[in-house]
Amino acid sequence: MARVPLAVAIHLAVCAAAYAQDSAPESQQAAPSSEDASSLGVITVTSQKRTENLQEVPISIQVLGNEKLRELNVSNFEDYVKFLPSVSYQTLGPGFAQVYMRGVASGGDGNHSGSLPSVGVYLDEQPVTTIQGPLDIHIYDIARVEVLSGPQGTLYGASSEAGTIRIITNKPDPSGYESGYSVGFNSTSHGGIGNVQEGFVNVPLSERAAIRLVGWHEKDAGYIDNVVGTRTFPTWDEFTGGNGTISNAAIAKNNYNDVDTTGARLALGIDLHENWTVNASLMGQKAESNGLFAYDPAVGELELTHFYPERAQDNWNQAALTVEGKIGNFDVTYAFAHLNRSDLIESDYSDYSFWYDTLYAYGGSIYNDNGDIINPSQYIQGKDRYRKTSHELRIATPQEERLRFVGGFFWQNQKHDIQQRYKIDGLSSELSTPGWPDTLWLTKQLREDRDKAVFGELAYDIIPDTLTATVGGRYFKADNSLGGYFGFSAGFSPSSEYGEAGCISPDPYNGAPCLDFDKSVKESGSLYKANLTWKATPTKMFYLTRSEGFRPGGINRRGILPPYLTDYLTNYEAGWKTTWLDNHLSFNGSVFRQEWEDFQFSILGANGLTEIKNANQARINGAEFELNWAATYNLQLSAGAAFYNAKLTANYCGFTDEDGVPVTECDDPEAPSGTRLPVTPKFKGNLTARYTFDIGSLQAYVQGSGVHVGQRTSDLRIAERGILGELPGYSMFDFSIGISKESWALDFFIDNAFDKLGQISRFAECAEAVCGAAGVVPQYPDGQVYVVPTHPRMFGVRFSQTF
Predict the structure, then answer these.
(1) How far is CA 383 from the centre of its chain?
(2) How is the chain split into domains, by residue range?
(3) Most buried residue among 214, 247, 308, 471 by CB atoms closer than 10 A?
């Protein structure tokens, strides 16, 4: 049943010839011939809540349009983000990425319920950034991806502190019937075989209404091997006389990190009359992944040895409604969305047990109902449920007026229902959390984040068509709460400040033994923006901007810790957007300085629980450039580059005062002033060249792309950075060739052609000083640190057709 929408879409597409009309909508027309590529096309964006020419918007924006996404063979987040110089990320697998922009990254993001993201992700008008992070939306039948660099606090608010990514879908079009499909196969080096099937159909219902149905299924091959191995727990081995060894032979498997993704989108568009339109959509996706998307260098490249099943299921669905129209001379927009997301996770956590047993004899406290010491290996079963509802109502004056205004109201509520079971098979009922067999540790909490805001931007043409001044502001209120149960049973930890021994109420809480804490924090504040834009000529524009962004504070999941405070980012930027050579060449860029105040820093603390503290101050100096050149009728070149110098401007001492304000004066800071911020390289760049030509009646092309990511540091803290190691720079190259004729196209591609395994991130499964301890275990002379690699080389072929 999960594939019914896909089957329907492809079936309608294949049968479309009998029903096709002459006028196909622009969004899916066949690729232009080489003679159409003589100059750069006009790209329109809606990043400032208006429809505008990209070259006339005075902010740093990179756009990947429908055609560009297809040319770059983009199907998911990791595919397009590598061509965005301003974006960096860390990931533990599909749907579990932490996104950063312009060097605004602390690096330690813990797990489960941490800080709100610093980069907002939108699907059309609706925010889809959950507390976990953004949805990994399959990229098909997408009009464009807009990437707004720098703080977008006035128009987009919280979680757009460092930037915003907007995914704009193709809308239902009543002007004509249209359908299409795409099928492909691929082979991953060191891995298996994958495939993808996609289809869409656009059906006019009348002259003023249409529906659009899109479906997809993608099978991504695995490339990490879980190889056979054993592990001996010292304490258990001692108590059992040499029988404290476990093996993973029963679950060892090659290429075990495969992914199945299935989804669909149904959209309805209605033109009520010439001034009002309604667009409603339902969209859902289910991604099932196995294994871990990292390897253990101590075992081998693209190899590890894990002992318990590992899988994840990321399910989400969204209902959205956008109403647009006019009241008098004002444009009015109302956008509503409701998102449900459910993440089900099973993961091996035996590293934690092994290292704590090796260093601290932890296994001596783990026994069964008979009192016998047992295998202390832990594994995690997690259920994270997210609910997000948002409303935005805004008005805008006509774009052609000399004095223009856009503004409105925004309110949002998001909930995170957290359930994490750390289990040990055969655990004594005395040590298990009451009501949860074999559960040594239970987290059962509910987090709720409420946001309200009023915002607006006012622009005035000081000199019409030449000099424009813009001011903007946003006033917000945040009300965030967190409460519930976390910890051990009283039988395991009778003197604990949390868990069953730390109950503040005898009544059960949501299935847990009791309530450990129930806290909330309320904040309000204002953000401002000022911009001056000079249009020196019709094709040369320069601007100066001061803008602000923020993330609300909140409550720590370890309820005995104090709340963390709102952090702010202030951006000072000078930029330009220019077109040259009779619209054959565009060169855009910006230089900027960003001041990051009291930034939130999440780490993996004791018992593997996220702790969030405000760190201190940081400064990011940078420059970004983008070049597009229609060199000839046949050759098109595009390039992007970003340079960053991101450093602390005060000591990170690792603790705050009683009010949560970070302490910066200490004798032995964990990261001294001048320390480089992690995750972001000093340089990231890309270059793409595409050459089109004709072979008889066929249109053909060859294309090559190169991406370079510079060296990065793995952690803010000096000691932990030394344990995890550096992230070396890497370069990757993609190549493709293809032919097309009228409505069909055949493409062959090779991604990461030279099979370069770049390192995206490095991590340990418990506190770095424990799981990363060097010189303790001969098997792990440098500690046990995992590496998340880039995707290995992949060969593929794709056939697509439109009707």
Answers:
(1) 19
(2) 4-222+257-304+309-348+379-423+429-802
(3) 214
What distances in angstroms separate CA 248 from CA 348, 349, 386, 417, 787, one per listed residue?
11, 13, 34, 32, 21
54 φ, ψ to 5°? Answer: -50, -40
CA distance 427 to 422: 11
In single-letter form, the type of residue at position 559 comes to: G
Could you tell me if 100 and 142 are in contact, meaning their C-beta atoms sit under 8 angstroms apart? no
Q: Has residue 744 got a pLDDT over 60? A: yes
Chain Cα centroid distance, residue 625:
23
If 0-12 CB within 10 Å is exposed, 13-18 middle and 19+ buried, where does residue 22 land?
Answer: exposed
Q: What is the pLDDT of residues 271-284, one digit of tens each?
A: 987 789 999 999 99
Name, in order, each residue with C-beta under 8 angstroms of 446's C-beta and a sequence gap of 6 or more: 415, 416, 417, 418, 482, 483, 484, 510
Q: Which residues of 657-683 are buried (b: 16+ CB within 10 A; e: fewer)?
A: eeebebbbeeeebbbeeebbbbbbbbe
Name which of 745, 758, 763, 658 is nearest 699 in CA terms.
Answer: 745
Residue reference for tokens 């590529």: 37
| CATH no. for 4-222+257-304+309-348+379-423+429-802 | 2.40.170.20
Please choose, from the candidates 577, 408, 558, 541, the residue with its C-alpha nearest in 3D space to the C-alpha of residue 498: 558
Residue 533 has pLDDT above 80, yes or no: yes
pLDDT digits (tens, 9 = 90+) for 85-136: 999 988 888 888 889 999 999 876 555 667 888 999 999 988 888 877 788 9
- What pLDDT, on a 0 to 100 scale, did the predictor assign at position 14? 35
| Residue 444 token pair | 């059962």
Comparing 2 with 23, the larger pLDDT belongs to 2
CA 304 to chain centre: 25
Q: Which helix (H) or strand (E) holds 729?
A: none
Q: Is the dihedral of CA 128, 134, 139, 140 positive or negative?
A: negative
The pairing of strands 142-149 and 97-101 is: unpaired
Please give the Cα distance from 324 to 163 (Å, whole number).
Answer: 25
Strand bridging mode 794-802 / 744-751: antiparallel
Distance CA 632, CA 503 (A): 73
Measure the CA–CA gap between 117 and 803, rounded to whole angstroms: 41
Cα angle at 105 between 759 and 607, to 5 degrees?
80
Confidence band for 7, pLDDT divided at 50, 70 and 90: very low
What's residue 363's pLDDT?
93
Mean pLDDT, residues 447-466 taken together: 95
Total residues belonging to the chain: 803
Rounded Cα–Cα distance for residues 581 and 629 (Å):
9
Q: Are 744 and 800 contacting, i.e. CB atoms less than 8 angstroms apart? A: yes
- Residue 22 is predicted with a pLDDT of 36
Strand, helix or coil for residue 311: strand
Q: List the helix and strand counts (H, then E) for the chain.
A: 8, 39
What token pair was written down for 476? 């917000």
Q: Torsion angle of alpha carbons 452, 125, 397, 211, nearest 10°?
A: -140
Nearest to 290 by CA among 264, 252, 234, 320: 252
Evaluated on CA atoms 711, 715, 718, 721, the torsion sign reads: negative
**Listed residue (530, 524, 537) closest to 583, CA to CA:** 537
Phi, psi dihedral angles at 584 (to 5 degrees): -95, -20
- Single out the residue of 209, 195, 399, 224 nearest to residue 294, CA to CA: 224
Question: Could you give the 3-state DSSP secondary structure of residue 703?
Answer: strand
Q: Model-level pTM?
A: 0.90
**pLDDT of amino acid 34:** 37
Segments in 221-349 forming alpha helices (H)? 234-239
- Written as six digits, the tokens of 606 are 């004791």
- Report the greatest alpha carbon distance in the chain: 88
Q: Cα dist. 324→267, 271, 272 in Å? A: 16, 10, 10
The CA distance from 72 to 67, in Å, is 9
Hunting for tokens 């510079």 — which residue is that? 710
